[in-house]
């Protein structure tokens, strides 16, 4: 059997290595340049590849094509494969054929990575034999070569879900559906929602679908009457029939034959959006029989991915938080909403057509100082000039941290949550977040 793989990133190379390990004839093709680390893996496994082009004749000899998620369906080579009735599948679909493990799959427009990492942490802390894979940046196919885990927690984007057909999750999690990537779905929310709901396809009575009952787009798109598995809705709004709820600093769970009352008071996760993420992860943990005490302890030790409301440190009773990944207004809203203390807010960068009006009420209530970090801060200053008592601006993140330290009093929070892209002063949001962390550690924490 001949397999052609389009794209030689993490998923494509992982799929190639799995196909080779299973004795299939493999060819890898990438229209761009392949990273050296992936070339080395392909060379070591003696897998032929090409870069900078797609050789249609060779690719279309395949019995099946595995497409990397970043390649759109409208790509010429994909269209030609469909025309010739050559199956085009995802790496996840391919990997699922070669594993007897149970898959815990997580998707949603926002919160996927946090929830995936948290779920993995809860399970691993409880001693469950679990692996981590998917959109988080690790190939499921490559892990399945050894297949040494009983469970895999898999983050899935809509692009990965689109080319999954027979694959089945044992537990599927859908956090939310908000407009995103609509250019790939004909600018149709219905098509985008249908893509997300593929997380629940092929489920039977022994499988579980955990979903946000407060999300109208999910409610409108999900036909529970036609669903083959067991539904576990979660809510912050007191929706009827929800099996997971949040009360004060506790999560109440009624799933399967497990009931729980989990203390979340020591969790480092901030904001309402993270309450949703935590409910979903806790529901998974309870389905696998983990005790309330073990879950609470694991919530306390969880560290989120870098640059997502990341706790950097405390000095003189002032807390420093790195939320550099907040490159849009919605993400900043979550940050401001979740922090209860007075805030010194560092924001700015390349504005993406932001409407800051939705932040006005929170800024008026919570922000005592706004430090504009960018080359052009006029829009920020105009939006908050009559709302925030003190506004400063700079192009130096070190100065922004130094100024924050001088203006802060015990109990304050210094928050980097830019609402903007980073490209005026930094390479990317990771670079910006790392520079903030370094400045805090150098200027604040070491003194």
From TrEMBL:
Pfam families: Mur_ligase_C (PF02875), Mur_ligase_M (PF08245), MurD_N (PF21377). It is found in: Cytoplasm. Residues 307-420 form the Mur ligase C-terminal domain. It catalyses: UDP-N-acetyl-alpha-D-muramoyl-L-alanine + D-glutamate + ATP = UDP-N-acetyl-alpha-D-muramoyl-L-alanyl-D-glutamate + ADP + phosphate + H(+). Its EC number is 6.3.2.9. SUPFAM superfamilies: MurCD N-terminal domain (SSF51984), MurD-like peptide ligases, catalytic domain (SSF53623), MurD-like peptide ligases, peptide-binding domain (SSF53244). ATP binds at residues 108-114. Pathway: Cell wall biogenesis; peptidoglycan biosynthesis. One of its GO terms (molecular function) is UDP-N-acetylmuramoylalanine-D-glutamate ligase activity. Belongs to the MurCDEF family. Cell wall formation. Catalyzes the addition of glutamate to the nucleotide precursor UDP-N-acetylmuramoyl-L-alanine (UMA). NCBIfam families: murD (TIGR01087). HAMAP family: MurD (MF_00639). This is UDP-N-acetylmuramoylalanine--D-glutamate ligase.
């Amino acid at each position: 059997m001949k397999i052609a793989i389009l794209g030689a990133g993490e998923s494509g190379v992982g799929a190639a290595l799995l196909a080779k390990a299973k004795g299939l004839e493999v060819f890898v093709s990438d229209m761009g340049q392949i990273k050296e680390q992936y070339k080395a893996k392909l060379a070591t496994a003696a897998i032929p590849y090409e870069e900078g082009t797609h050789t249609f004749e060779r690719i279309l000899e395949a019995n099946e094509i595995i497409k990397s998620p970043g390649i759109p369906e409208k790509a010429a080579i994909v269209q030609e494969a469909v025309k010739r009735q050559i199956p085009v599948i995802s790496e996840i679909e391919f990997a699922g054929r070669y594993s007897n493990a149970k898959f815990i799959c997580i998707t949603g427009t926002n919160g996927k990575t946090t929830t995936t990492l948290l779920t993995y942490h809860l399970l691993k802390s409880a001693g469950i034999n679990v692996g981590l894979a998917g959109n988080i940046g690790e190939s499921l196919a490559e892990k399945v070569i050894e297949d040494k885990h009983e469970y895999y927690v898999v983050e899935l984007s809509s692009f990965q879900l689109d080319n999954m057909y027979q694959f089945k999750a044992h537990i599927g999690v859908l956090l939310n559906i908000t407009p995103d990537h609509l250019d790939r779905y004909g600018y149709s929310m219905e098509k985008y929602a249908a893509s997300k709901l593929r997380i629940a396809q092929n489920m039977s009575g022994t499988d579980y679908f955990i979903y946000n009952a407060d999300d109208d787009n999910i409610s409108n798109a999900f036909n529970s009457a036609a669903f083959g598995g067991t539904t576990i809705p979660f809510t912050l709004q007191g929706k009827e029939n929800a099996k997971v709820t949040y009360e004060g600093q506790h999560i109440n769970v009624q799933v399967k034959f497990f009931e729980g009352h989990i203390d979340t008071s020591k969790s480092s996760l901030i904001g309402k959006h993270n309450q949703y993420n935590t409910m979903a992860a806790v529901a998974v943990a309870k389905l696998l029989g983990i005790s309330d005490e073990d879950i609470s302890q694991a919530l306390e030790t969880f560290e989120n991915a870098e640059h997502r409301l990341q706790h950097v440190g405390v000095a003189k009773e002032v807390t420093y938080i790195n939320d550099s990944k907040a490159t849009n207004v919605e993400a900043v809203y979550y940050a401001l909403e979740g922090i209860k203390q007075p805030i010194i807010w560092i924001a700015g960068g390349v504005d993406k057509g932001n409407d800051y009006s939705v932040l006005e009420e929170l800024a008026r209530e919570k922000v005592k100082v706004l430090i504009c970090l960018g080359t052009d801060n006029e829009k920020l200053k105009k939006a908050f000039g009559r709302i925030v008592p003190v506004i400063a601006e700079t192009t130096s993140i070190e100065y922004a941290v130094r100024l924050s330290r001088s203006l802060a009093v015990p109990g304050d929070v210094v928050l980097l949550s830019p609402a903007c892209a980073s490209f005026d002063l930094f390479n990317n949001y990771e670079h910006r977040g790392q520079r903030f962390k370094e400045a805090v550690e150098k200027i604040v924490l070491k003194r």
